[in-house]
Amino acid sequence: MKTFRIGGVHPAENKLSAGKAIETLALPKQAVFPLSQHIGAPATAIVKKGDVVKVGTKIAEAGGFVSAAIFSSVSGKVNKVDAVIDASGYRKPAIFIDVDGDEWEESIDRSSTLVKECTLTPEQIVAKVKDAGVVGMGGACFPTHVKLSPPPGCKAECVIINAVECEPYLTADHRLMLEKADEVLVGVSILMKAAKVTKGYIGIENNKPDAIKLMTEKAAQYPGIEVVPLQVKYPQGGEKQLIDAVFGRQVPAPPAIPINVGAVVQNVGTAFAVYEAVQKNKPLFERVVTVTGKSVKNPSNFLTRMGTPMSQLIDAAGGLPEDTGKVIGGGPMMGKALVNTEVPICKGSSGVLIMNDKEAARAEAQPCIRCAKCVSVCPMGLEPFLLATLSAHKDWERVEKEDVMSCIECGSCQFTCPSHRYLLDYIRLGKGTVGGIIRARNAKK
Amino acid sequence: MANKLIVSLSPHVHSGDSVQKNMYGVLIALIPALLVSFYMFGLGAVVVTLTSVAACVFFEWAITKFILKRERSTICDGSAVITGVLLAFNLPSNLPLWIIIIGALVAIGIGKMTFGGLGCNPFNPALVGRIFLLISFPVQMTSWPLVQQWGSYTDAQTGATPLALMKMAVKGDVNALGQLPDTMSLFLGNNPGSLGEVSALALLLGLGYMLWKKIISWHIPVSILVTVFVFAGLMHWVDPVAYASPLAHLFTGGLMLGAIFMATDYVTSPMTHKGMIIYGVAIGFLTVVIRLFGAYPEGMSFAIFIMNAFTPLINTYCKPKRFGEVVKK
Amino acid sequence: MDLILVAVISLGAIGLIAAVILYAASKKFAVYEDPRIAQVSEVLPQANCGGCGYPGCSGFAGACVKAADAGSLEGKLCPVGGAPVMEKVAAILGLEAVAAEPKVAVVRCNGSCENRPRTALYDGAKSCAIAHATSGGETGCTFGCLGCGDCVEACQFDAIHMNPETGLPEVDEEKCTACGACSKACPRKIIEIRPKGKNNRRVVVMCVNKDKGAVANKACKASCIGCGKCVKVCPFEAITLENNLAYIDPAKCKSCRKCEQECPKGAIQAINFPPRKPKVEAPAGEAATKPAATKPAAAKVETPKVEVPKAEAPKAPEAPKAEA
Q: What region holds the 4Fe-4S ferredoxin-type domain (chain A) (predicted)?
């Protein structure tokens, strides 16, 4: 069984909602659309208070090349353009829309028939993906059209679809593959066409045997697509780890990116979004979100309109338990702890994880015993104990020298540390500061 | 939302591993060797072990509380118990109590707490204690009681260890090697020596347990053992009369104990696999050099001690292989 | 006897040879350094705090000598030694000292535990920088003090401490040298290095919240809600309102304290002023700044030494920018 070569851990999988079919969530009363739901420049609002919008109406324009447009997921009236606390915990500008009915833009094909044929040229596909505001659905939210437009001098050799879902608890991608296998595969074919390659791999971890079986069977009808079963190991869903596991190549240290080794990595949710955007004219305004947690009454997978407050999803899954200590947007390894449950669902929200007080509390940090477990689990071959110590001492020069910028913030080091040290807290601080120093240095040049 | 939500950076889950678990894991791995020592040396072994552990734990508690004035005591993490057991394992079973207590004081007080406690010490505390005693009380520390005198303590009869015989052989005594116990009894531990070092089998069981529980990685013990085997084998091949067979080297003295429990001490060993192998090879080499050419019959503790000092240097120069450094397939 | 003689002679010879080598090396590899740098270094406090903007005291001394060769010491200030030290430096370099107004660190947040109810719990490394990156903080205010004490750690003069009751840092004005380390360490730029003001008295907006009024109001009892009343009432146009936040320009402020009275939230504070007497004396412009008999304890700081340069050079100090 294939897997990546360096480090890795195996957290308890806890895929509580794996057997639950995707349910469609009711419309929210008010939908909120933060303007920065993706990496890159925030979008610019093109609606104002009082404007009437339909489902699928563009409400914000991309703010640059590395940026994405935002579409309304509801029909109704724009209430205001104000600030809302998003997953980062800070107030960011957002569009508030009061929901009234469910009227869709006429251009969207709402039928469920599978459209296999795609006659568009690669350039047309990229333009359409861009116009639909599609971004990476795995969590990082990198605009998809940017990944499909390789920088000069680079040539893609294959498309790798990330269906690993290595985060514990989350099952959104797993359910999507089981229920929309054909759509996903057509999406992959379109992505391959757009990237001008003939080879596509779908990497699935071995803990989803049903998805591997189904996808392998269906993939036979689509030329060039191969399903690659992978050993269960975190962080296999990391872009670089996945390329290593599937393609056997390692992306060099930053600033190198996957395209430098000829790979274009897309999430399975992105493939589905691309299918809908290209074949059904449907911009990205809804996604599958897992609501889960050991204390949650009814862990579920919901097809949710963007902008729905998380509290509504939690209520639909049985309500917020009394002893809730932490609500996490995303999975337990890389998700963000939220300050309240009114945070809206965005393009990158793959799950809502609820932890009780006991699970949520971190143990007290003890002195480092230099057991080197963090070193052996680091998937990037770094020395987390050293980076954390140097960051705490603010020795930024050495932090940079020790390759802090290679860190993918997967959290394996802190997960495994027997002394419960806050390794990643400090490494993030170091990475952030060094990143700033590097940007300042590049700006000077 | 009645209760306040907790916010913290990811990861939000933990493997559940802890310092205590690792330390108690090592203690469990020490049990077979402990039982063998009780069987071989009887009352003496029990007294020495209990004294050493009690003294180590007491000194750690007292120093934490009265000298460092820290609120949280660290004795619960089990590291002081390990130091106590390892120190006892390095002592002959007829050692008087007061010497053991001095050893424990040096091990914990000078070897560990002076540097700030667990995680900060450059040298393995038990080794510091042992080497201090070996140099200060050479007579008591090198008179090894014969095995299976269950009821005796300081009054036990003593005899020459296999290592002493091997040293005599190197010095020119052509009959010395002939007096060595056979390899099987060396392997099982039926020969005089320090408490815990006699039975290679029991120590290997401990190694197996620690590898299975992923408390340590294989790199250090294997590299030490292989180096000793190869180097001693080479010497044996050159002159079988003066130099004992490599298996005899492997199964005698503190080699197994050192390679499995002392050299693998988290705090004082290198952090990367590459570094661990360099460290292990160097220890193995130094051990054989001291055994064959040095003044002392046993070189394990000195070899580990010397390499402990080199650990920071090894850490500085042996970086793990970064992701992406690998050449394309 | 022989032994001693041999020892003395051989050691003496070794010493002699070494001395010759050392002498030769010191001549051959000598690096010329302006002797004034060493002289200037000598009068500097040698705290190496970097508050002057140079790497340590010797770096600053070098910069001063260079500046002196160019003709003026303007812009060079040792925040620790202040005017007295700068005068000595100027004397060594044969120049007039450029007087600078003494400054002090001001913590512009009054979001104490009482004023700012906690809405979440932060659980992580005790570092403001990390807490800042984690989320908006434990309260509804995403601009205010995080209370982990990065500023306390940054201070080399033991001049800033957390008050466990309010959860906010407090500056010990006697010890503060205005080196700016705390201000740099604060990830939210709450701490401002402000002129000490006449008689050590100053009027400051104790808030950096840029949220809209309603949001800021809900998050903290002592927040600036950007109502603009202070701007209107200020007779000297010293207050500006930007992004829902008022800022008092210390260069223009005449410490009349009208704004303090006008602020509906109590976000504007007058520091080190005597307690207000009912009506008569209070808002009478400059009058309030006269050394009053009821000087509070903290105002003792002003030694005559500090006063001298202020009186001689009433230059307008650089107005610190409101942090973006």
A: 359-381, 397-427
Q: Where in chain C is the domain with CATH 1.10.15?
A: 35-93
pLDDT in tens, A357-412: 888 888 888 889 999 999 999 999 999 999 999 999 989 999 999 999 999 999 99
Please tell me the class of the C35-93 domain. mainly alpha
State pLDDT tens for residues B51-77. 999 999 999 999 998 888 888 777 888
Alpha carbon distance B141, B92 (integer Å) = 6
Asked if the model's pLDDT at residue A242 lies above 50, the reply is: yes
Mean pLDDT computed over A234-249: 91
Region B203-209: mean pLDDT is 94
Average pLDDT over residues C172-184: 86
**Which ranges in chain C are annotated with CATH 3.30.70.20?**
103-194, 197-294
In sequence order, the 6+-apart residues with CB closer than 8 A to the CB of A141 are: A37, A38, A39, A135, A346, A347, A348
Contact list in A for residue B12 (CB cut-off 8 A) is 326, 328, 332-333, 335, 337, 353, 355, 359-360
* Min distance A76 CA to chain C CA atoms (Å): 25
- Phi, psi angles (nearest 5°) of residue B159: -155, 175
Cβ proximity of B125 and B112 under 8 Å: yes
For domain A1-24+107-361, give the CATH number: 3.40.50.11540
CB-based contact A89 B17, cutoff 8 Å: no
The class of domain C103-194 in CATH terms is alpha beta
Partner-chain contact C135 B7, CB within 8 Å: yes
How far the first Cα of chain C sits from its last, in Å, is: 82
Identify the residue with better confidence: B1 or A152.
Answer: A152
Q: What is the pLDDT of residues C108-130, one digit of tens each?
A: 999 888 888 888 888 888 899 99
Residue of A92, A339, A391, A423 best to disrupt the C interface, most CBs of C under 10 A? A339
**Residues A418 and B22 sit within 8 Å (Cβ to Cβ):** yes
In chain B, where are the structural domains located? 20-140, 163-316
Per DSSP bridges, beta strands A158-163 and A200-205 are: parallel
CB contact under 8 A, B324 and A250: yes
Question: Of the ranges A419-433, C52-66, C279-293, which one carries the lowest mean pLDDT score?
Answer: C279-293
Q: Which residues of B touch C126 (CB under 8 A)?
A: none
Q: What is the pLDDT of residues C76-114, one digit of tens each?
A: 778 777 778 888 888 888 877 666 678 889 999 998 888
Could you say which of 3.40.50.720, 3.30.300.180, 3.30.70.20, 1.10.150.20 is the CATH number of the domain covering C197-294?
A: 3.30.70.20
Residue type, A321: P
Q: Of A212, A267, A275, give the one whose Cα is nearest residue A242.
A: A267
Taking the C-alpha atoms of residue C65 and residue C50, their distance in angstroms, rounded to an integer, is 17
Residue B134's contacts (CB-CB under 8 Å, 6 or more residues apart) are B141, B142, B301
Query: What's the gap in Å between the CA of A258 and the closest CA on chain C?
Result: 27
Cβ(C288)–Cβ(C282) under 8 Å? Answer: yes
Please give the mean pLDDT across all residues of chain A.
91
A245 touches chain B (CB under 8 A): no
B2 contact C CB<8A: no
Average pLDDT value over all residues in chain C? 80
CA distances from A284 to A135, A191, A264, C135 (A): 8, 16, 20, 27
Look up the pTM and report it. 0.85
